[in-house]
Structures are given as structure tokens and as C-alpha cells.
Amino acid sequence: MARTDAIVLGAGIVGTSVALHLAKRGMAVALVDRAGVGEETSYGNSGVIEGSTILPPAFPSSLTGLLRVALKRASEANYHLSFLPQVAPWLMAFRANSRPQRIAETARLNRPLFARALAEHETLMAESGATQYLRNTGWMKLYRSERAFADLEPEFALAREFGLPLDALDAAGARKLEPSLNPVFKRVVFWPKAASVSNPLAVTRAYAARFAKLGGITLNGDARSLHRAGRGWRVETDEGALDAPEVVVALGPWAPDLLKPLGLKLPMAVKRGYHRHFRAEGEAMLARPVVDVEYGYLITPMEQGIRLTTGAEFAARDAAPTPVQFDRLMPQARKLFPLGERADDKTWVGSRPCFPDSRPVIGRAPGLSGIWLAIGHAHWGLTLGPITGVLLGQMMAGETPFCDPKPYMAERFL
Ligand SMILES: Cc1cc2nc3c(=O)[nH]c(=O)nc-3n(C[C@H](O)[C@H](O)[C@H](O)COP(=O)(O)OP(=O)(O)OC[C@H]3O[C@@H](n4cnc5c(N)ncnc54)[C@H](O)[C@@H]3O)c2cc1C
Questions:
Q1: Is the pLDDT of residue 56 over 80?
Q2: Residue 127, SS3?
């Protein structure tokens, strides 16, 4: 039986970043996953490192918006009717947290993480030889109506408070940056300080390779085999049983599968999202992620082609995929950008692990000594993986954390 200082369960971007940070501190760490490194949610995202994210996504504030979703006319969201009773308490809590004052409070509470997110990626990329995947080209949000743009004043006020630059452009200004966009939109906000990656899977794999260079081991195993052993914890892996005094749960949307049987019930739901890849027609080019805000989708250049990702779908994590949002949004996407043939033959689906207050849980697992949590990064797990590693590393080492970790504690739900 092997013994380590810490076992990290889940090798997505969050678990891999945590494992790497612990290894950098000289700890003997094992990273355990039942699949390959970075192959689940951390594979299929939009690749945006949102150093300039301000506001979390909110519950529709207008009756019209809500009705469009309810009647399944909205391209930005979908739901499975059969899932609504199960997710109703979470949705009510999410709605309460979507009030303007609460949203601004969430932005301020999450800010310390976002403010350092890109710098931490840059550090890890430099150490891991992964800088070729990074594009410091910002991202762009397009607004087809003046009305949608007029709603942005609270976000602009927070941007000023946080010292985040932005350029409010018209269609002509946006086309100077992205000439292949058709001017079907009126207004644009360009966030120059955001970055993106051309291959999220390759980035997580590069961080895992760096972890291995520092002596970390990656093993196959089922996290649900975790049980107490003596004064620590044991997990079964393909290489045999592994013991450690400390365990980090970084299982993304699968965290409840482990935590519930251990008696820890946290209000995590998933917002599913899909992607497809397309070739660009002719000479069309895209240099950065572009969001078509009112239709709720994003297009971004990836190594595989132009990746189009969808907004939220409220459905059971393991339910069969229902990529109906593509039917609703494709005509609009094709009007915006000359998308050609599909560059893949299947539609990817993943699950954003979300708490209703749009904050991750980073810290000790209440009532489970030796267990730490790094879960619930929602729409921003790629962005926040490395900074989560920094914060958790400091907490586990008993150092003064770089920011107040209280807003991210699981206790807020108990
Ligand atoms: C469509 C879409 C677009 C997105 N775009 C962005 C974006 O642009 N920028 C951004 O920052 N974020 C984005 N996100 C969110 C981001 O992808 C997630 O927050 C992030 O990937 C979560 O990482 P994770 O490591 O927590 O989870 P995961 O990547 O899901 O990792 C969890 C790991 O746990 C493993 N696991 C599960 N169960 C077990 C078990 N029983 N035993 C062993 N291992 C197990 C899985 O195999 C997996 O490897 C997007 C998400 C989606 C769906």
C-alpha cells in the first residue's frame, strides 16, 4: 500500500491545478481520476480566461425573458420539464441571488480570484511550456439591440470600481478587430484584458505533465471508493490502495456522488452546455472569443476549428443529450459569421458545476476532517483552476491566504 501526503480526486483543470500547486510546495501528491486528465468538462469549454468577468449569469429578470425560456423559444437556455421539480429549490435560490444588489455583491466577493486568475495561468503556462496556447486578444460581447446595451450601466460601474478597461464600440469599430463578423449587431463591448486558449485539454495536460516532473503521480481509480483508514483516508486505484492524511475533492459536477454518501449535502446543480466545431468559409477568420449576448452562444477559434458553445441547459447531469439549442441559434450564428461545414461528427455535452450564489467552494469539508473541497466553479472553472490551487495550497499549508477565503467556505450552505 502506497502512502502520500495528499490525494487529489478529479483531474480536471481544477484538480490538476491544485495537485500541481501542492507538488510545488514539496508535498507527495497523487492525482486520481477514472478517466484521462482534463477529458471531461475541462475539455469542452469555450477556453476563455475571464480576468475581466464581472457579473455572474443571472436568472431572467423580465417576464418576457422568462416566458421565452419557459416556451422553449430562447436559444440561450433550455430545460427538461421532468427535471424541474428536482432543481426547483436551487432555481429559487439562484433567482434570489440574481437581484441586482446581490449580483454586485457576488462580483465583489469573487473579484480577488478573478483579479489574479490570468496571471496564475501565465505562471503555470510558462513553467509547463504551454504559452503557445494562450492568446492575449481579449473577448468581445455583441449586442444586437440598443436596449440590451442600455442595461449594462451597472456592469460598467463595477468595471470602473475594479479598474478594468473596456472599449464600447459600434459595429464598424468591432469589424476593425474582427473583419469577418457581419454587422448584424449594433453595439459591442470589447474586454481587452481577457485571454483565451486554443486548446483547453492541452493546457490541462501540460499542467499534469509539469506535476509529473515535480514527482507527482497520476493514477486511475474511482473516487467513490474513498473511505476512512486509521487516522486518514484510503482510495482504491488500479495500482492498489492509496493512503493519505489529506484528500482534495475536485470532482467538478460529480462531487455530490462522493460527498452525499459521506453525509455532506451541498446545493450543487449543473448547467449543461454543448459544443460543435465548424470550418470557417473561405478566408473568414476569428482572432478571439465572441459572444452573441441576446442569442446566448459563443464562437471561438480552437485548434479543431471554430468552436460554438451554448448557454445553460437545466437537465439531470446524466440525462441523454438534447442539443435543441443549436436548432434555435444556428440561423443567427450563420448570419453573424460565415460558418461552413461541421469539423466534427458529434456534439459534445458537459456540465458546469454550479452553486446558486455563483461562488465556488474552496476550503475544508465541514465535518470531514482531512477532506478539502475545490468544487463548483460553474462558468469559470478554466479561468479559476490555477488560482484555486494557490488559495487551497496556502490554506492546506497553514499560511496566510492571499485573500479572505470565507466567501468560498462550504459552511455558508449549512
Ligand atoms: C459549454 C461550456 C463552456 C464553458 N466555457 C468556459 C470558459 O470559457 N471559461 C471558463 O473559465 N470556464 C468555462 N466553462 C466551465 C469550465 O469548463 C468548468 O467550470 C471546469 O471545467 C470545471 O473543472 P473541474 O476540474 O471542476 O471539473 P471537470 O473538468 O469535470 O473534472 C472533474 C474530473 O473528475 C473526474 N471524476 C468524476 N467522477 C469520478 C469518480 N467517481 N472517480 C474518479 N474520477 C472522477 C472526471 O473524470 C473529471 O476528470 C465552460 C463549461 C461549459 C460546459
A1: no
A2: helix
Q: How far is residue 83 CA from its own chain's centroid?
A: 22
Give the distance (Å) from ligand 1 centre to CA of residue 57: 18
Looking at the domain assignment, is residue 239 inside a domain? yes
Structural domain that includes position 330: 60-97+139-192+269-354
Final residue of a structural domain among 310, 339, 354:
354
Q: All 3 cell numbers of residue 327?
A: 436548432
Residue matched to cell numbers 468544487: 375
Atom of ligand 1 nearest to the CA of 289: 8
| Distance separating alpha carbons of residues 12 and 31, to the nearest angstrom | 10
294 and 396 both lie in a single domain: no
The reply to whether ligand 1 has any atom less than 6 angstroms from the CB of 379 is yes
Mean pLDDT of 35-42: 98
Is residue 57 in contact with ligand 1, taking CB distance under 6 Å? no
pLDDT tens for each residue of 288-319: 999 999 999 999 999 999 999 999 999 999 99
pTM above 0.85, yes or no: yes
List the grid coordinates of 109: 466577493
CATH code (residue 291): 3.30.9.10
Report yes or no on 121 lying in a domain. no
Domain stops at, among 354, 387, 403: 354
| DSSP, residue by residue, 159-209 | HHHHT---EEEEHHHHHHH-TTS-S--SEEEEETT-EEES-HHHHHHHHHH
